[in-house]
Amino acid sequence: MLTVARLGAAALSAALLAGTAAAPALADSPAPTAAAAPDGLYGKSDPTYDGVWRQSLALTALAAAKVAPADSAVSWLTGQQCEDGGWPSFRASGAGCDAKTEDSNATAVAIQALAALGGHQDAVDKGVQWLKANQNADGSWPYNPGSPGDANSTGLAVNALFAAKADPAGVAKAGKNAFDGLAHFQLGCAVPADQRGAFAYQPDPSAGALAPNALATAQASLAAAGGWLPVAAGVRSDAAPKPLPCPDGAPAAPVARADSAEAVGAYLTAQLAAGGNHLTLTTPGAAPTPDYTATAWAALGLTQSGHPQQAAGALDWLGQNGATWTKGGTDAGATATLLLVTQAAQRDTSALVGQLTALGPAPKAAVSPSAGPTSEKAEDDGIGQYWLIAVGLLIGIGGGLVLSLQRKRGAKL
Length: 413
Prior knowledge:
two-stranded antiparallel sheet; 413 residues; mainly alpha; Glycosyltransferase; disordered C terminus; globular
């Protein structure tokens, strides 16, 4: 998704998917006319740069809440897919596909949404084939085909492969697989201890050095932990994430796959603690501001890696500031992301489910307002209660028949 922080290409694209869409500030490109939100799409704002992104997050979050979305919402997303399997950020009704404008981020989240909904295997398979066809030679993925890879796009592609049950270790180009591509951006033993485990958005264009980036680190952390959307709480570890082991004389080698999730978890834990339970968006020429999106993805990554206690403070902070981030529940992408994080933490989601469903077409079916991680149990309990009632009625009817027969026999005697 093209956002304010990605304006002006690589130098500013480190804050990819920051949550507010804007037109690209390119001197030779005229400002596009704002597009009206089509029927079936969640949210009413211009979908030009985030239509597929926010729709995918919304459908994923609602699927996790066991809300059956309207057919129009699902068909809008599937209708955005191009014949070659990729998705653009958005294309107007009747517009053709341009392979150059298809992007890996939209494709990755669309795959995860359709996998979560179920029943769309053909579209999922085509999306995975598109990812495979557009992988770079170093194993990474770019935002648009033919560009250098970046940590955010690579992390999202790995998430999608996991969701589609395609082993990232087996998705390779020129001998480099998806995990190799992700490791290309992670800072290891060659940097100071307080930077180890972080991810850079991209290597510095001139020197090739890696510098920590908050959003790149947070989004890549979910892939490093082997996760995808929606995140389900995994095996919990009571211990804090382990910092990257760097004994004296350790070579400046890529971070090993086995150490990646713990290393980035340790880095994020330290950053959240230092920042008052949130991460910070730093953009050249602008004052630092809280980064809601990065904070949310950091919480998802920590939860996936088995460290929900390290994510708890971030969840509290997001809960306290959620109205600002979601614009009072009117920003579909932010509301869906906050719902996904809250679901992963197994906290009450009823208000967020209501806010999100109100931003799109009326769902076909929904569970009770207590929708969330305990919904299946609630449904099971409800079914059990119905069975008890039914059995009780049968017993009552049977007892009545027995008494009636006894009375008739007594009358004949």
